[in-house]
Amino acid sequence: MTPPVLYSFRRCPYAMRARMALWAAGVTVELREVKLAAKPSVLLAASPKGTVPVLVLGDGPDVGSVIDESLGIMRWALAQNDPEGWLAGEDAALIAANDGPFKHHLDRAKYPGRYEEDGGADHRAAALALLVPLEARLAGAPYLTGATRGFTDIALFPFIRQFAAIDPAWFAQQPLPRLQGWLDGLLADDLFANVMAKFAPWQAGDAPVLFGPR
Question: What pTM was computed for the model?
Fold first, then answer.
């Protein structure tokens, strides 16, 4: 069997959640780590927008098909195998709030001055306000959609991790004890450690790097 090819970038939150779903599903891929400043031509041929992650299917009736959205890759992987029942824990509204307003403020809080339209807004405070409903939600269960981690937890986790890492001491002082515990638990999980292994940027002719649980 020819495994799917995954173009990824280790620190990209979109690629991170795709890798986590693929690993949890037990799907092995050929991983091609991308250097964003020198994107390979085969990536651009598969997905001209040039962002990661991109999954190129390698077998079956959809061979050669391209999935170039992280949520699509997550759903595809879990449709192959969903041992933890993640798909039952997909909350479209929470994910849309994360990928839209929260990501908007996260980018501007992390890179102040990069965006000309910023206008001096306090994006860190705005992003923090969007986390308050998550804190309330975790009062009823240890994860965002129930007793065990699911699709929504993994979809949001890399972005909240990125926000917390802007200023860890500041984040630790915020009145979000349940969310902080949720984040610490996912950071300490073997799943996260497994998908954050480091690989050199891929070049044409390199030996395949198989990525997935053995």
Answer: 0.95
